[in-house]
Amino acid sequence: MSFVKNDCQQLSLFDSLGYLSKRKLGILEKSWAKPFSDYIFTKIDEMIFAPLYSQNSNSRPNAPINVIVGCLILKELNGLTDDELLEECECDFRYQYALHTTSYDNQPISDRSFSRFRERVYAYELLTGEDLIHTCITDLAEQIRKFMDISPVIKRMDSMMIESNIKRMSRLELIYTCVSNLVKTIYNAGAHELVNDFEEYLDPNNRNQVVYYKQDVPQKERLQKVIDDAAKLLPLCEDKYSETTDYQLLLRAITEQCKKDDNGKTVPKSKGDGMGSSVLQNPSDPDATYRVKAEKEHRGYIANIVEAVNANGSVVTDYSFDANTHSDQDFIKEHLEKQPIAEQHEAIIVDGAYNSEEVRALAEEKNISVLSTGLLGHKPKEIFGKFKMSQDNKTIIACPEGHDVSSTYYESRDQIRVSLPCGNCNGCPHQNECKPRLGKRVANLLISLKTIRAEKCKTELDPETRKMIGRIRNGVETVPSVIRNKYRVDTMPVRGKLRTKLFFGFKVAALDFQKLRLFLNGKEFCRGFALA
At 163, is the secondary structure helix, strand, or coil? Predict the structure, then answer.
């Protein structure tokens, strides 16, 4: 299929738009279709997607790229499925007006246009690492930002957890599913002799029996039976099936969930053995990871949002998407690293989880300030900001009274344990503020680095500036809420990081279009700024 740019955007002599009544034209002009046509569709750069298609002009031309991209934004805007979207394009004149297809007798898309386009984009990123949808969406966002006259000088950043559309599985169910999938793959390939001893895994009713209903057999025994079957099956099919996805997933599940005992037998890991957050959660989505945030369990991904903001409003200018084990500091470092040195000094307003001395130093190189509001969910103790830190900000070397201390940094929790002789704490004027745990000879204190960063921010900024920054930063909290509730980000119909990220990008574009509509209607108001 060859790439052909869609230049047919002029109205034809017999365009159906010319046959509308004055009343219908007025309704059309006041609908969402008019601003979408003027400010979104005409700004879509089709050349971004040229690498997806052949340059051979003799092959069949592609469906118009700007029509497909515009459709996928409208799909998220109005909460449609692919089939519903196609019906709207064929029957609703507003969609045709928005997409400049009113001259067509039949719309230039089919029931497979969207899925084929998404698959091409996915395959291209898998091959090259380049996210064409992200390039397109951020390019549109930059044009919206300029039209709304929003300066890039002040930005705000926040992250949001995104749940993978998967079932939560027990260890027994996870390993059983992986074994069953591999057995079915081998059986369907015709190698029946390899799975003669595993025919029970071909029975669709056996799964529930093993996982849920065989209560007369202890779960520990059922789990060991499935693990024994997996350990037996893997060597049998290694030569012919080791490259298959189902083999790799079963091998991964056994490696992560099991260990060898003293006799060399494969047994389940115990709590003391520990398992990382990146362990397989469900074989239907191998990319999903596990994380606990705000005492809530999450299985899936995390997105990071960057908004440009001023009195005219706000627009999401950039976004990132990764496994939910990716930290806020990782996101801001990646954002800063790809930024050019700012000609005019810029500021990024974040909460306390983003900030660190390393982040600040990186930002200073780009002529950017990272301003933290220190939002921790509780009021931090002011005394913690008075502890003396080392240059790497991972060691505390002295307490507020100047006494030398020893400390241990726990990277996974971003905390530091401080230890010093009890004699230095007894009678100290700050003892009631620090509240250390006093032993017979040593006093211990566990301090979160988020708390220290928040207190440092308070001392570096005057109260009025902190108050304004807090108001501006709080405004970004609405973005995750809107994306989650209006655009149903936790129930996306796909699995896997790259495919999920693709859908998320179109949701961001739909959100930016809504912000543009509010601006055009004079309803946009940004918290933290006084409108003239």
Answer: strand
Chain centroid, CA 450 distance in Å? 22
Backbone angles phi, psi at 421, to 5 degrees: -60, 140
The pLDDT of residue 340: 93
Q: Is residue 280 within 8 Å of residue 133, measured between CB atoms?
A: no
Helix intervals (H) in 79-131: 82-91, 93-98, 113-128
Give dist(CA 141, CA 524) in Å, integer: 16
Q: Which two structure tokens, joined as six digits, stand for 498?
A: 């790259």
Is 525's pLDDT higher than 60? no
- Least confident residue range of 34-43, 194-203, 523-532: 523-532
| E runs forming strands in 270-399 | 289-293, 296-310, 313-323, 346-350, 368-372, 388-389, 396-398
Q: What is the pLDDT of residue 474?
A: 72
29 has pLDDT over 50:
yes
In the block, residue with structure tokens 């083999």: 247
What is the C-alpha separation between 388 and 407, in angstroms, rounded? 11
CA neighbor of 52 nearest in space, from 137, 127, 111, 141: 127
Quick: pLDDT tens for 85-114: 999 999 999 999 999 988 888 889 998 999
Helices (H), 129-265: 132-147, 171-188, 206-208, 219-241, 245-257
User: Would you state the structure tokens that stand for residue 144, as one six-digit string?
Assistant: 């919206």
Question: d(Cα 352, Cα 356) in Å, to the nearest integer?
Answer: 9
Compute the C-alpha angle 509/119/247, nearest 5°.
Answer: 125
Q: What tokens appear for 42 in the block?
A: 């005409």
Q: Tell me how far CA of residue 362 lies from CA of 3, 211, 370, 390, in angstroms.
A: 41, 51, 10, 18
What is the identity of the amino acid at 500? T
Which two structure tokens, joined as six digits, stand for 321?
């998407």
What's the pLDDT tens digit per position in 249-297? 999 999 999 999 989 999 999 888 877 889 999 999 999 999 988 778 9
Q: Are 453 and 357 in contact (CB under 8 A)?
A: no
pTM of the model: 0.81
Say how far apart CA 379 and CA 451 lie, in whole Å: 9
